[in-house]
Design goal:
By secondary structure, the protein is α/β, with parallel strands linked by helices. It is 35% helix and 29% strand. It contains eleven helices and 18 strands. Strand 1, helix 1 and strand 2 form a beta-alpha-beta unit. Helix 2 runs antiparallel to helix 3 and helix 10 crosses helix 11. The radius of gyration is 22 Å and the shape is globular. It starts with a strand and ends with a helix.
């Protein structure tokens, strides 16, 4: 029997925690014949590396940034391999390059294209526990690449797809809650959640899983378990919709605490111009949502979208490129905003949910701005300092 096990940064933050995980893996080897481990960088290592880069320059070269950020995971897997070896089991650490994780796309936000199977398979057959760096790979030019925030989840699920087995994601929380318990103490732990709902919650701000990882799980039918490191209880299974035992009107709430609304003005109305604008956004890997288009009387267009404030350095590159392509455009920003979303399969067949959502905000004196919907979610931007109040109001409205 085979499994892929992934440990997040908080789970491997200290040598003591790495030693405890090594003890656990030695015991787990009695249950599983073959174990692949994916590990993140220790604690806040990635943040520290980014801070150092920003002390050199506010706009670091993205290739060099990838090379720098890959150090964190390499440190973790090497230490974990040493710990397991010292306890009598055979283990070997592999970087993304050594594991033949091939990627495509832009630096700092690459996507996995393929994973070489033979080398890892041979190590497993020889009785090794294989420990692989999450979050990174190598592109066609031989450059180290990283997959973006949460990329270790994607690495783990991609490996589970490659080796056709379950994927167990371990972190510092008990599983997936319907609301962030740090904001809403009455939040409930979900036993199961559908792939669709988890993808939507992740995309809209829930940080416990990375969207692409869940998407891979759904596409290839990979069972994903999310639980607390070293715990024998709790946890949440991400599963097919039909296997979910209960369908609520609203499954959960997601938030983003710090977003920017960018409005691009003076765009001539034509499909070619608008397509060109979004091609630039895509080329730079900027994640956006809540897109609004207003066609004005003079046949000009205003386009607004929101993005994470933490990605402002990418946004600035996008804006500079747009200005190069069209000299007459002007840009304005609005910051100090957050985003709140309700997610649930039940939204499909219940038209009254939007009214209840916005009424809950209004009753509590919370203004809302941009609004967007999907088949299973409703989102709006609100003032950043009111985001937690909004969560409580909406959670109480839907009895979460």
């Amino acid at each position: 029997m085979r499994t892929v096990v992934k440990y997040g940064g908080s789970s491997v933050a200290t040598i003591e925690k790495i030693q405890a995980i090594a003890d656990y893996i030695v015991k787990l080897k009695k249950k599983y014949d073959e174990i692949i481990i994916v590990a993140s960088a220790m604690g806040k290592t990635t943040d520290s590396l980014i801070k150092m880069a920003n002390e050199i320059t506010v706009n670091p070269n993205q290739r060099e940034l990838d090379s720098l950020l890959s150090i964190g995971e390499q440190q973790t897997v090497t230490l974990l391999s040493m710990a397991i070896n010292s306890k009598g089991e055979k283990a070997i650490s592999l970087t993304g390059y050594q594991a033949e994780i091939k990627t495509k796309g832009v630096h700092t936000k690459s996507k996995i294209e393929s994973i070489g199977k033979e080398k890892i398979e041979n190590y497993l057959k020889d009785g090794y526990i294989v420990i692989i760096t999450g979050f990174q790979g190598i592109n066609k030019n031989g450059n180290i690449t990283t997959l973006g925030r949460g990329g270790s989840d994607t690495s783990a699920v991609a490996l589970a797809v490659t080796f056709d087995c379950e994927c167990r994601i371990y972190t510092d929380v008990d599983g997936i809650y319907n609301v962030d318990p740090r904001i809403y103490p009455k939040a409930k732990l979900l036993n199961t959640i559908s792939y669709e709902e988890m993808m939507e919650m992740s995309n809209l701000g829930a940080g416990v899983m990375e969207t692409r990882a869940v998407e891979l799980g759904k596409k290839f039918g990979i069972p994903i378990f999310v639980g607390k490191t070293l715990s024998e209880t709790g946890g949440t299974y991400i599963t097919d919709r039909e296997k979910s035992l209960e369908e609520k009107l609203v499954t959960g709430i997601s938030i983003k605490k710090d977003i920017l609304i960018t409005t691009i003005l003076n765009i001539p109305y034509s499909s070619e111009k608008i397509a060109e604008l979004f091609t630039v956004i895509d080329d730079y890997g900027l994640n956006i949502n809540m897109i609004n288009q207003n066609i004005l009387k003079d046949n000009m267009v205003e386009i607004s979208f929101n993005s994470q404030a933490s990605e402002k350095y990418i946004l600035e590159q996008v804006v500079n490129k747009i200005k190069e392509l069209s000299k007459d455009v002007s840009i304005k920003y609005r910051d100090g905003l957050g985003m709140i979303s309700v997610v649930g399969i039940g939204i499909i067949n219940n038209s009254g949910i939007a009214g209840r959502f916005f009424s809950a905000l209004s009753r509590n004196g919370i203004n809302f701005y941009q609004v967007t919907t999907s088949e299973i979610s409703i989102s709006c931007s609100v003032d950043k300092d009111l985001i937690e109040k909004a969560v409580v109001a909406v959670a109480e409205e839907f009895c979460l």
